[in-house]
Amino acid sequence: MTMRPGSSKEDQSHDARRAKAEVQARRNQGESDLLHELRVHQIELEMQNEELRRVQLELEESRDRYIDLYEFAPVGYVTLSSSGHIESANLTLSSMLGFERAGLLKLRFSALVLEASGDDWHRFMVAILNDQEDRHRTTDIRLRRRDEGTIEARLDCRRVPNVVHGAMVRVAITDITQVKQAEIALQASEKRYSLLAASTFEGIVISAKGRIVDVNERLVEMIGFPRAELIGRPVAELISDEDYDRVMDNIHRGDESHIEHGMVRKDSSRIEVEAHGQPFSDNGRAFRLTALRDITARREDEAAARIALHMEHLRNLAIEATLSEERERHSIAKDLHDGLGQTLHLARFKLDRLVKALPQELPAATLVHELIGLLSEASGEVRSLTSKLSPPALKDLGLVPAISWLADEMGRRHELQVVVEDDGVPKPLTEGQSTLLFRAVRELVINIAKHAGVGAARIGLRVCNSRLIITVADKGVGFTDWRATLEARRGFGLSSVRERITFLKGAMDIQTRTGEGTTVVLEMPLDSMPTEMQP
Fold this sequence. Notes:
Elements: H1 9-72, E1 76-81, E2 86-89, H2 91-97, H3 101-104, H4 118-129, E3 137-144, E4 150-162, E5 166-175, H5 177-199, E6 203-208, E7 211-215, H6 217-223, H7 227-230, H8 244-253, E8 257-264, E9 270-282, E10 285-294, H9 296-357, H10 363-389, H11 392-396, H12 399-414, E11 417-422, H13 431-452, E12 456-464, E13 467-474, H14 482-487, H15 494-503, E14 507-512, E15 518-525
Parallel strand pairs: 11-12
Antiparallel strand pairs: 1-2, 1-5, 3-4, 4-5, 6-7, 6-10, 8-9, 9-10, 12-13, 13-15, 14-15
Helix pairs in contact: 9-10, 12-13, 13-15
């Protein structure tokens, strides 16, 4: 402090005190300001410290969340060095492979790879490490568990730069064992379906909105279209015209159905099918699966069976007509014999008595003799007609005597010498059987007389294993292709013979050759006559 000149000591002292007070005041003010600033700074530090503690807590919570996510994620995490060693692994991977985490660290990852996949893994790892763009790569590989089991794993990998190791590979490992098993099961199922669809006896069509989506090979075989021509084709184009409305109405209803209808093949021919349709959906899209069975042969068999049944009915009618005719013949023959025959016999008897009573020189006696001759001829005609209508031997004595009578008749009327050979074994036949067999043999013998061009024939009858075998043979001109002749129904009455034998559950066989004669063999079981057809 500078003293003013001329001031008194008292003034100087006062100034000194004042200056000192000012200095003290300034010092106190500075200390107060400093203290204030320090307090403000302290508060700021406390606030910053509180913020740091809050941030630290958040970081710790974030770290804990990250650790939880890392350790307990549903996939395994592992970090590999460029040499392929495990630098870190989460608990999920430890559990997945059955290892303690400490046992995984520093282990070469290739040691966990199944030997069969070792080369694939090595090439994959090299490709990742050499990828300067650090692109994400994925591969499926089989890993070994500690318990010697295996898992199917999907590895999602990415290369990351690292100051210490140069480059590292981060890997996320997903256990896809169940997925792979499902894929294998699906592939097996698809294979089984494909094999089933290919080998089934039924054609399979899958359609959508009336157009073909897929078919199996069996359907291709059934209708003759190549598969490529069927895909996309309207189903309606394969339906026969007469069944079109019925089938399409059935399809449009969209219900499960079972229907029989005709289909048109590529060559325009028709087949009959039995169709079983079933609607189904896939990813929201409506489809229809139809299994088609070719029943053409069955329909033809059914038609043939109906024809055969009709023919059998006609045959039975013909046989019934034959038996009825035989009964009528017998009735007429009996009436002729018992009525007209007896009357003629009585008239002749009375004329004989009359002629004996008349003198022979009278003209009336001559006339009576003429009447007796006419009556004798009439009686003979009646007996002949009676025999033709119904041989007495057939009804009274049976088949063999009737055939012997037939042989005699053929000799008298047609100059055909017929030899009958019978084995002497009893032949228990019903009247109906005897009638049909007699008419059949008579037809064959008359054929010989008319067409064989010979004067002799042979008829053989024998029993073998409860079957009656009748042989009618000649050494005449014979003929060719008797089956065609028979089928054309021009076989000299052979068709009627066959129908009679068929009715008796028997068979007819013909052995013939041009110029070498003909042998017809009739064979039937002895119990073949239906009861309702017996006269």
